[in-house]
Amino acid sequence: MAADVVHVVDDDAAMRDSLAFLLDTAGFQVVLYEDGTRLLDALAGAGTGCILTDIRMPEIDGLELLRRLRAAGHTLPVVMMTGHGDVPLAVEAMKLGACDFIEKPFDDEVLLQALHSALRRADPAEPADPALQAFLRRVATLSERERQVLHHLVGGGTSKEIGRALAISPRTVEIYRAKLMAKTQAGSLQELVRWAVLAGLA
Questions:
Q1: Burial 87-100 (b: 16+ CB within 10 A, else e)
Q2: Which domains does the chain have, with CATH numbers?
Q3: The Response regulatory domain covers which part of the protein (predicted)?
């Protein structure tokens, strides 16, 4: 069986080399691009596999690349790599059609899992992700106020901003946040946001 193709787009040469080594070792066929323009040119024909792209790049950033891919009719699954604090950007990317995002620096296994999941999603015969179904069941246990805090967190709101919006103190927001993190079993805010967006809650 042919290896799955991963198109890697990153303007950082060291990052490209590191990803190429990791993905090649994991059995993927890797194609590297230093910018989005080269990827778009290469995919002028029908492409296969999935795309792994950085979100912050000069000229065409990850969001613009995603817009252009979709405008050109490309439906390849896209996984975004983000820097710390890019959660609102990542949420926007997923609303544009990216299927996942991972925050740098990431664990190798997290990246490989995201890519396998993205490639499965490209297969229409693939059943719904059981981990996502489990997350939705946990979200169903949240109180109304916890759901409101979740909604604002996914929107990129800080504790102060959420407190103002809900007319509660930032400290109270943090208490609700801790409760909903425990109930949803999210290991970090990024993981919580990622699952919420995948579940269509954002």
A1: bebbbbbbebebbb
A2: 5-121 (3.40.50.2300), 130-198 (1.10.10.10)
A3: 5-119
CA angle 69, 75, 76 (to 5 degrees): 90
Q: Which residue has the tokens 């002028």?
A: 44
Q: Is the pTM of this model over 0.85?
A: no
